[in-house]
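Help needed: design a sequence for this.
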């Protein structure tokens, strides 16, 4: 069974719009929280990979909004690997209301690994293996 991490938090007032609904761009921020936590559950911090000169830049992001989240709602972001290759990583996300289980949004992000020189490179072996074991 693929590894899935969970990130839990409550909607902050600053994340809502004039109608009290979470502003759409915040779901992408929540996906980033999910990615960061996912890596930590596999045993590494993304910053470690950067220190080794490998950066996973976002090449594509998609989010399908299914129901609104509102101020102070408890949120859970489930993150899993959808695809892994030497240079590309695709994460998939399910954002739910933590109490009702209602799916609020689903999304994915595709990342290309580059070096400090901004040229494509492979994911360092240690991180590739950790992610591969979590897939």
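Sure. Designed sequence:
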């Amino acid at each position: 069974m693929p590894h899935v991490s969970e990130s839990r938090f409550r909607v902050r007032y600053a994340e809502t719009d004039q109608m009290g609904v979470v502003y759409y761009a915040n779901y992408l921020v929540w996906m980033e929280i999910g990615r960061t936590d996912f890596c930590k559950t596999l045993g590494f911090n993304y910053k470690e990979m950067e220190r080794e000169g490998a950066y996973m830049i976002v090449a594509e992001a998609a989010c399908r909004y299914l129901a609104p989240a509102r101020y102070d709602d408890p949120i859970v972001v489930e993150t899993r690997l959808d695809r892994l290759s030497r240079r590309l990583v695709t994460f998939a996300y399910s954002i739910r209301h933590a109490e009702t289980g209602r799916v609020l949004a689903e999304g994915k992000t595709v990342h290309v690994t580059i070096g400090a020189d901004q040229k494509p490179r492979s994911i360092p072996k240690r991180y590739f293996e950790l992610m591969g074991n979590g897939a």
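The chain has one domain: 4-134.
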